[in-house]
Amino acid sequence: MAESVLKVLERADSERPNLLRKAGFIPAVLNGEGYERGIPVKVEELNLNRIVHAHGANAKVWIDYNGNRLFGFLKELQRNCLNERITHSDIHILSQNDDIRVKLPIIFDGASDLEHKKPGTADPFTFNRYHR
User: Fold this and answer.
1) Is 25 helix (H, G, I), strand (E, B) or coil?
2) How many domains does the structure of the chain reveal?
3) Which helix (H) or strand (E) holds 47?
4) Secondary structure element (H or E) that encloses residue 127, with its range
5) Is residue 68 part of a domain?
6) Is residue 105 part of a domain?
């Protein structure tokens, strides 16, 4: 798997989020080990969208920040409810030796859940949910 490198730029307090989005950037915050207070940054929208599309919403990424290369993951993505565009991101910086806990969704696929039922008793909702 190729490395995902996310280039982030410092964001001044005077830069308004809506103007950043119009300029093609997404406001974000770096936090984690060494960044407890949270550092406001901006990320190129196209670069972030490519990473999210290829590796998912909680992708592990290398962050290029002020010439330093840091390791972290996308902790949270906020999206516009109307057009699903990313409006803000939280990026958590960590050491590659740290232990982390992550909740993973489990999706059952197949007919094994329906095998215990008698033929013809499966309701259509359950059948469609497991047979796509």
Assistant:
1) strand
2) 1
3) helix 45-55
4) helix 124-130
5) yes
6) no
Tell me the pLDDT tens digit for each residue of 41-64: 999 999 999 999 999 888 889 999
**120 in a domain, yes or no?**
no
Beta pairing, strands 86-93 & 25-32: parallel
pTM of the model: 0.69
CA 71 – CA 74 distance, rounded (Å): 10
Q: Compute the distance between CA of residue 57 and CA of residue 4 in angstroms, rounded to an integer.
A: 13
Which residue(s) pair with 43 in the sheet?
8, 26
* pLDDT tens readout for residues 74-96: 999 999 999 999 999 999 998 77
- Looking up residue 47, the CATH number of its domain turns out to be 2.40.240.10
Distance CA(62)–CA(8), nearest Å, equals 10
